[in-house]
Amino acid sequence: MATNRTFTMLKPDAIENGHMGKIIDMIIEAGFDIKAMKYTKLTEDQAKEFYAVHAERPFYGELVEYMTSGPIVAAILEKDNAVEDFRTLIGATNPAEAAEGTVRKLYAESIGRNAVHGSDSDENAEIEGKFHFTAAEIF
Ligand code: IDP
Ligand code: MG
Questions:
Q1: N or C end: fewer C-beta atoms under 10 angstroms in the chain?
Q2: CA 136 – ligand 1 centroid, Å
């Protein structure tokens, strides 16, 4: 996968609270092209593997439970400087610290239930994209 791509998930709270359409609109308005998109639900094994890097953190169990609590939207997005620009669009992990106008400032409930995931590096964007999509599902 090229380095102008990132991976996102609209998390269960965003779907539950009816923010799916508004967040997808913000993503498109910000200039990201959707290369792949799927409305799905993570299994416990998938959530554990996706967040394995956080396995030793105190919130890991809560995070896995939350991420499997309802459907998500997974997507691969393309844009120049995709990883960094997407992290700017979504804002800080904790919505209390997120900049005005960011997705998390507008729609996140809390540091845990924070509406959206964004890859933190080109390397992880590729790993995470491949975790959710086969080559034939990426346009
Ligand atoms: P990021 O999503 O902004 O990259 P990470 O530090 O990678 O943030 O954490 C992954 C996810 O774990 C967060 O998006 C959030 O859902 C959850 N999380 C992070 N820190 C906390 C915490 O202190 N309490 C509860 N959940 C947390
Ligand atoms: Mg992260």
A1: C
A2: 31
d(C-alpha 54, C-alpha 111), whole Å: 14
Q: What is the pTM of this model?
A: 0.96
Classify residue 98 as exposed, middle or buried by CB count within 10 Å of its CB (0-12, 13-18, 19+): buried
- Kindly report, residue by residue over 31-84, the tens digit of the pLDDT: 999 999 999 999 999 999 999 999 999 999 999 999 999 999 999 999 999 999
Q: Active-site residues: which are they?
A: 117
Q: Which residues line ligand 1 (CB under 6 A)?
A: 54, 59, 63, 93, 111-112, 114, 117, 120
> Candidates 8, 48, 49, 63: which one to mutate for ligand 1, based on the most atoms within 8 Å of Cβ?
63
pLDDT per residue as tens digits for the range 89-123: 999 999 999 999 999 999 999 999 999 999 999 99
Task: Tell me the residue range of the domain where 20 lies.
Answer: 5-137
Distance CA 104, CA 90 (A): 6
Tell me if 5 sits within 8 A of 125, measured CB to CB.
yes
Residue nearest to atom 18 of ligand 1 (CA): 112
CATH of the domain at 77: 3.30.70.141
Ligand 2 center to 134 CA (angstroms): 22
